[in-house]
Amino acid sequence: MMRFQLRPAGVRLLMVALCGLTGGLSVVMAQPAPQAPARTQIDLILIVDTSASMVGKAGGQNIFPEVKKALKDLVSSSNPGDNILLIPYDADVRSRPTAAIYGQQDKDSIHGEIDVMKAAGPWTYTAAALQKGLEEAKRLDEAQGTNKHAKVVVLLTDGLNDPPPAVRGSASEVRLSEVARRFQGMPWFVWQVQLGPKIDGGVDEAFRSAEFPNYRPVRTAAADLSKVRAEILKEIEAEKARQAAEQAEAQKRSAAAPADDGKRQVKEEAKPQMKRQTLLLWGAVAVGIVLIGIAIVMLRRRPRPHGALQYWKPGEAPRTFDLAAASKRRLRIGPPTGDLVLTDVGEHGLILTAARIEGQVLCVIEAEDGVSLKFKGQPVTRLELYDRDQFQLGAYSLQYEGEVGSRVG
Fold first, then answer.
1. Whether pTM exceeds 0.90
2. Per residue in 104-129, pLDDT tens?
3. Which of 169-178, 288-297, 316-325, 337-346 shows the lowest per-residue confidence on average (mean pLDDT)?
4. In this structure, what are the phi and psi dihedrals at residue 109, rounded to the nearest 5 degrees?
5. How many angstroms separate the Cα of 194 from the Cα of each of 10, 121, 202, 233, 326?
6. Domain spans in the chain, listed from the N-terminal domain onward
7. What is the torsional sign of CA 366, 369, 375, 380?
8. Range list of H helices, 31-167
9. What is the topology classification, in CATH, of domain 308-401?
10. Which one, of 137, 53, 116, 44, lies nearest residue 90 by Cα?
11. 42-237 — its CATH code?
């Protein structure tokens, strides 16, 4: 388990935030209590794999009951004013009409649709289903004008994109890369919830290349879908809070706008009061900027390398290099100017960083140009490190010691 350590720069940033918060509290206490902003709505688009493997056929496991339960839980968490769209798919895509939520009766109606869903299809045409889901998100976005809802697209599948043979390789085939590119950079939340053995690499690459800032790939067991549902709801609530804050700020700006049309002149005796109001406003803005900065730093704090490397030449005793003690996010292994110097390696070596991969923080090494990196006797340019992994750099053997578990397969 990783432990968070606040470094000196972080301490200074926190002290600035606390000072700003103290001043901001006095600003807030001096002002009338703001009205609560209107509730922010969401559009929830649920794309569900109904191929036969979801009920245990074709080598799969019967996970469909857990999938239905997760879908119904997501529907139950909706609020009045939300929209929900259910899109089952296998060889083809069967989009249901968009349902506006006004009360429990609307939720019960969608629950009924989920209850009667069957999983019997022979193929998994994920690309076509995602195309339909993103088109519906765009349609709703355009219809809502300036009062846009937060868009949440959830793909639930246990397999990879596998179009039916009739379209595979033809001009009519829907391709993942083209689907994502059509909606490049949209701020919608897109979750790939993979219930099979591995994340669909085609879906993953398509959304990353199209720069979807809120794309989330998650691989999980069906029994743990409740945890994934909780994470989705957490992000939805965070997005609602962000939009509500924007609405409140817009209301504040509107209330502070001059009531006259600019023709009347400001009286001299009113200037001190205006100056005080301006200072109070900028104080509140400064507090907001500092706190947002802290939130961004905490949320986007990149992981650091952890564990240790043992290294040796033939006939030499192994030596140990503590990756965490180096206190860097990027380490060079090998060259004379590196963090870990290995003699006779040359001017180039390996770059070691850390990355979050499928819920784990893994150390990753990459070979610089012209460097011979071998793993299990085969040359590689990039390697994700698991506990006890051994690899070779020139005449050196290296072994990673960590807490991420041993490599499987």
1. no
2. 999 999 999 999 999 999 899 999 99
3. 288-297
4. -65, -45
5. 36, 18, 13, 17, 36
6. 8-32+279-301, 42-237, 308-401
7. positive
8. 64-76, 104-115, 126-144
9. Tumour Suppressor Smad4 (2.60.200)
10. 53
11. 3.40.50.410
